[in-house]
Amino acid sequence: MTYDKRRAAKHEATTESARAIINSEAAQRNAKTDRLRAARMAQQPPVKEKARKRKPPGQESP
Question: Is residue 55, in this structure, part of any structural domain at all?
Answer without folding.
Answer: no
